[in-house]
Amino acid sequence: MSEKIAFLGLGNLGTPIAESLLEAGYELVVWNRTASKAEPLIKLGATVVEDPIEAITTGGLVFSVLADDAAVEELFSMELVEKLGKDGVHISMSTISPETSRQLAQVHDWYGAHYVAAPIFARPEAVRAKVGNICLSGNAAAKERIKPIVQSFVKGVFDFGDDPGAANVIKLAGNFMIACSLEMMGEAFTMAEKNGISRQSIYEMLTSTLFAAPIFQNYGKIVAQHAYEPVAFRFPLGLKDINLTLQTASDVNAPMPFADIIKNRFISGLAKGRENLDWGALALGASDDAGLTK
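The chain above was modelled as a monomer; its predicted structure follows.
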């Protein structure tokens, strides 16, 4: 428990991760752009700072859970990485481009620090229940150093090698598959509804038999009930991830026609004012097409 841990970014996902680390006995120095979000962590023993660079200990660890590529690149300036310094490790849990991770890893290398991509598959409630899964890629020694820490708040840790961008590829692939599942359930449940069958009944049957998996059970409940609030993952972030997926696919000439369909569903949802809903509201597109929404 002697590691010096900085934690940057306390959004819907960052906060329960930070809480879990504190509950596991780790000492955290936390920062968030909106300072008030850090206040509840003080009761759990966190130290709050006003400037992210104040949170950094040279040679220590820093977790970041930020919204997008631009936020990560802006926050991890040369000055901040230089302070992290030799043998420091940045655990980047954001869903960002693989290429951005590779570029950030190079910058960290210049100062003797290590960058580990560590995107997590978990909604906030899954983090609190410690049933999420995390992908790692980057420097081997750095990954071994952080594994006991990340194991304190996830169920599974999966190592994808030395390429800093590899874990981000997996994360984008997984989020694409979740989005496709949302569309699939939206279409199937809507078809049933228009045939006089309740969305809840088709959900209960299929997710206890053919589709008895967490994604279908958890997101299926949201889709069946059109329960897109409270928000765990904002709708615009879904579009961000699909755009990253399409760019990553384009970079290696891998066509993803379903991803184009999903992208247009997100754009349509934003055009209809759904930016403050959970990304599960992607499934509303099928209801729109069937004349079931106003």
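The mean pLDDT is 97.
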